[in-house]
Design a protein that fits this description.
By secondary structure, the chain is mainly α. The chain has a domain of 65 residues. Helix content is 46%, strand content 0%. The chain is built from four helices and no strands. The model has no long low-confidence stretch (mean pLDDT 84).
């Protein structure tokens, strides 16, 4: 409700506001901002997505999963089969 929102106020701004992902992309291409400028970079989103997928696998297995140093599931090897599959023809790594 508006009354509570007005009472609470706006939170303190901690991050620079994004001008929009299209503009961020072109600014990065032109070298106008340092590489760390983008707030949606893969160094953050990759590990976060992997953790979300591990949560999905854990929910599907119905139990807590244990991982080794390489990130492979050791508590239930059958679950590893759900975590990876061979890419379809034409969608694998590029041959150089």
């Amino acid at each position: 409700p508006d009354a509570r929102r007005k009472e609470f106020g706006r939170p303190k701004q901690l991050l620079e506001r994004s001008p929009g992902h299209h503009k961020e992309f072109f600014m990065a291409c032109k070298g106008e901002k340092p590489r760390k400028f983008s707030q949606s970079n893969f160094s953050y989103s990759g590990p976060m997505t992997a953790n979300i997928q591990l949560g999905n696998l854990s929910a599907r297995a119905g139990k807590k999963l244990e991982l080794n140093e390489a990130g492979e599931i050791i508590s239930d090897p059958k679950i590893n089969d759900l975590a990876w599959r061979e890419p379809r023809l034409g969608w694998g790594p590029l041959e150089m």
